[in-house]
Design brief:
The protein is an alpha/beta fold. The chain contains 14 helices and 13 strands. The structure holds pyridoxal-5'-phosphate (PLP).
C-alpha cells in the first residue's frame, strides 16, 4: 500500500479553515483599490502592537527587510561589527554584510541551538555596535543576559524574532525583548501571510519614527526625503490576510503546543533528542527539530514512509559560498570555535509540523520514527 505523503506544513488546511474570512478581507482591499499601506496596514500595526505589548509596530516587506531597516535605523555602517549566531537562516548575517559591516559569529548552545550569551563578550571589539540573537525554531535566546552585556558595553540588541512571533520569555512576548525586534510573515512562519511580509517593533519613539521613514524611501512627507531608505512597504492585501490569521493565532499556538507535546512524549526515551524548551520561556515551534548522527538514513527511512523532513540548516553561515569569497581564511578558525554549530548542522532534522497537522498524520510520523 502506498501511503500519501504528509504535508511538511499544511497551509492549505489553514486557508480552508478561514476561507470565508480571508476571501472577504481580500475582496475588501481589492474593492477599495488601496493596495499600498492605508487603513488595513495601520489596523494591523495597532493589532500587532497590542498583541506583543510593544509600543510601536512598523510593518514592512519581509523579515529580511525588517532586519535591514533595523540596522539602518541604528546607524550600522561600513566597518562596524555585529555579533550574531552562525546557526540561522542566511538573512541574519546577510543584511549586516550588505551594509559593509561584518558579522562576527559566536557558537550556539548544544541543546537550545541559540547563541551562547557567555561567548558574546570575548568577541566584542571597539568596532562592535550591535548583537543579533536569533530565537531559533521559535524559542527565545537568553535575552536578559544578552541585554545586560549590551547595556554594560554600550551596544544595541536586535532580536531576530522571525521564527518566534508569539513566544514568551520571562512574562514578555517575543518581538519586545530588545532595542528593536524583527519578525517575518513568510508563509511558513508561525504567523504567515500570502507572500512576503515582516515587521519591526520598538518601545523607543525616535527609533520608531526613523524606522518608519527608512521603510518608505526615507520620506517624511510627500516627495520630501530626509534619509536614504528603501521601498520596504507591506501590501494592504497581506495586511488583510494577516489580520484574519492574527485573530486565530492564539488557538493555533495552543494546537502547536499539543502537537509538540505529543511528539515529545513519543520521542522522550528515543535517541532522537526532542527539543528542549527552558522553563522560563515558551516556543512557538516554527520548526519541530530533532537530531541524529545518522541523518541521511533517518530521512530516507521517513521518506519511504511518506514522511517529509527538512534541514534547518545544513551549513553554518560562515561556510556559505558568499563568505568563502569574502574571507576564506576565517572558515577554519570559526569551525574550531563553533563545535556546537558544526555538529548541529550535520545532525538536525525538522519533522512535519503545524497547527493543522491531523492526529492521524502525527501518529504516522511517530510510528515511522518508532519503527526505526
Ligand atoms: C525567515 C527568516 C528571516 C528572513 O525572513 P524573510 O521574511 O524570509 O525575509 C530572517 N531570520 C530568520 C531567523 C528567519 O527564519
Amino acid at each position: 500500500m502506498t501511503e500519501q505523503t504528509i504535508p511538511f506544513i499544511d497551509l492549505k488546511s489553514q486557508y480552508l479553515a478561514y476561507k470565508d474570512e480571508i476571501d472577504g478581507a481580500m475582496a475588501r482591499v481589492v474593492d477599495s483599490c488601496g493596495f499600498i499601506q492605508g487603513p488595513e496596514v495601520a489596523a494591523l500595526e495597532s493589532e500587532l502592537s497590542e498583541y506583543t505589548g510593544v509600543k510601536h509596530c512598523i510593518t514592512c516587506s519581509s523579515g529580511t527587510d525588517a532586519l535591514l531597516i533595523a540596522l539602518l535605523t541604528l546607524g550600522i555602517q561600513q566597518g562596524d561589527e555585529v555579533i550574531t549566531t552562525p546557526f540561522s537562516f542566511f538573512a541574519t548575517a546577510e543584511v549586516v554584510s550588505l551594509l559593509g559591516a561584518h558579522p562576527v559569529f559566536a557558537d550556539i548552545d548544544a541543546h537550545t541551538y541559540n547563541i551562547q550569551a557567555d561567548l558574546i563578550e570575548s568577541n566584542i571589539t571597539e568596532k562592535t555596535k550591535a548583537i543579533i540573537p536569533v530565537n531559533l525554531y521559535g524559542q527565545p535566546a537568553d535575552m536578559d543576559k544578552i541585554n545586560d552585556i549590551a547595556e554594560r558595553r554600550g551596544l544595541f540588541v536586535i532580536e531576530d524574532a522571525a521564527q518566534s512571533f508569539g513566544s514568551v520569555y520571562r512574562g514578555k512576548k517575543s518581538c519586545g525583548l530588545a532595542t528593536i525586534g524583527c519578525t517575518s510573515f513568510y508563509p511558513a512562519k508561525p504567523l504567515g501571510c500570502f507572500g512576503d511580509g515582516g515587521a519591526l517593533f520598538t518601545d523607543d519613539d525616535e527609533l520608531a519614527a526613523a524606522a518608519r521613514c527608512l521603510m518608505n524611501h526615507g520620506q517624511d512627507a510627500g516627495y520630501r526625503h530626509s534619509r536614504i531608505g528603501i521601498n520596504g512597504r507591506l501590501d494592504a492585501l497581506q495586511a488583510a490576510v494577516l489580520r484574519v490569521k492574527l485573530a486565530h493565532f492564539d488557538e493555533e499556538l495552543a494546537a502547536r503546543e499539543r502537537v509538540a507535546e505529543r511528539y515529545s512524549a513519543a520521542l522522550e526515551s528515543s535517541a532522537f533528542n526532542p527539543p528542549r524548551i527552558l522553563p522560563d520561556r515558551t516556543s512557538v515551534f516554527a520548526q519541530y527539530t530533532v537530531r541524529t548522527e545518522q541523518r541521511d538514513t533517518f530521512r530516507s527511512f521517513l521518506k519511504e514512509h511518506g514522511v517529509p523532513s527538512a534541514v534547518h540548516y545544513p551549513l553554518p553561515i560562515y561556510r556559505q559560498e558568499a563568505y568563502l569569497k569574502l574571507w576564506s581564511n576565517k572558515i577554519e578558525s570559526y569551525a574550531a570555535s563553533c563545535p556546537n554549530t558544526e555538529a548541529a548542522a550535520r545532525e538536525v532534522v525538522s519533522l512535519p509540523f503545524g497547527p493543522f497537522l491531523s492526529e492521524e498524520a502525527q501518529e504516522r510520523v511517530i510510528e515511522a520514527i518508532k519503527s526505526i
